[in-house]
Amino acid sequence: MNLSQENILALKCAILPPVEARAAWTELLQKVPFDDFEHSTYRIVPSIYLNLRNMPNVEILDRIKGFYKFCWARNSNLFARFLPIAKELNDLSIEYRLLKGGAINLISESFGSRTMGDLDIVISKFDLNLFNDV
To answer: Which pTM does this prediction carry?
Structure first.
């Protein structure tokens, strides 16, 4: 996988200790205006916000906070719609795991930490017949 320089800087903003992440954020914004980010960069802006939210002097912090809140609301709605399905899967003792954004949001204990458009789950092939009845 080839990451662009923008992607690398954005990942640094999301995962480095906050002081280093703030420096990477400043560098990123100097290289690419926020409105011109690649689609893949926008997907991790909520994680960047979570990493930088308690740091002083973060450029456009209010704007990325709004982006985080939008993702939190959208993802919370998605999880709420999934809860009845999860309950049924649990009631039938069907083994499943959430993947990608769903897993990241649950592990980070913040429904806004990663943008999601859907919930990806994996189910054991031994439980597929049960799942088809759900």
So the answer is: 0.78
